Every structure is written in structure tokens, then in C-alpha cells.
Amino acid sequence: MNKLGTYLHKAVPDMRLTIKKYANAKFEYLAYCLKIKEMDDEEYTFNSLDDPLPRVEEGNYEYRVVLRCRAQARAHFLQLRSDVRVKLQLLNSKHVQDLTEQLEKWTKVLLEYYEESLQISNKANVFPIDIDLSTVVDAQ
Question: Cα–chain-centroid distance for residue 136?
Fold first, then answer.
């Protein structure tokens, strides 16, 4: 039961924390993707109007910074996704292993109980039971 407690109170909360970090990294990465999409759309709109975009004329520094941040966020997101995948596999195998051990213990305890019950019933000399049938038949 101690292993099950460790599983429930340490492994599962750790997994939840890792998943939260993964979700935050995914949200950050997708936010950068959206920002780049908005900047691309803005540039396309200005180009279609033959109007120069001020940030493009100034060297497009903001766009390059967002691209770099997106690349870093993507690397972090992919690393956390890999961590989540590995932890889930380890957690699942640990769960299966612990469950197998618990079932083996339970089976062993039941087997001991039934063997003990069999020994007790074999020692008890209550069979055959003698009944006076004339008292049973007369009562009806």
C-alpha cells in the first residue's frame, strides 16, 4: 500500500505539474504563431495597398524578434511534449507493475484464507449429520 500512496501522492501530482507546464508552453508557442500570422497579414494588406509598412522600412526588427521567440518557444514546447510522453509511459508502466503486485498479494491472501478454511472444515467432524426423520415427518 505504501507504493500506491507514493504513486498517488507524488507521481500523479508531478505528472499534473508537467502537463500544466506543457500546456503553458504550448499556449506561448501558439501565441507567437498567431502574432506572426497577424504581422504577415498586416504586411500583405499594406503591400496590396502599395503602402509601405513602417516596421518593414525600419528593418523589421520586431518581426525578427518574434520569429526568434517563436523558435525558442517551439523548442521548449517540443521538449516538454517529449517529457510528458516519457513520464506518461513511465507512469503507466509503474501503475501496471504496482497493480500486478497488489493483485498477486491479494490472490496469495485469498489462497491462504481458502486453504485455512479447508483445513478447519476438514478437522471439524460434523458430517454426516444425524437427524431423526420421524420427528421431522410427524411435525408436518
Answer: 65
Dist CA 111 CA 117 (whole Å): 10
- pTM of the prediction? 0.64
pLDDT at residue 140 tops 80? no
Residue 77 exposed, middle or buried by CB count within 10 Å (0-12, 13-18, 19+)? buried
Determine the distance from the C-alpha atom of residue 15 to the mean position of all C-alpha atoms in its chain, rounded to a whole number: 7
Query: CA angle at residue 119 from 115 to 120, to 5 degrees?
Result: 115
Answer for the pair 67, 78: CB distance below 8 angstroms, yes or no: no
Cell numbers 491479494: residue: 106
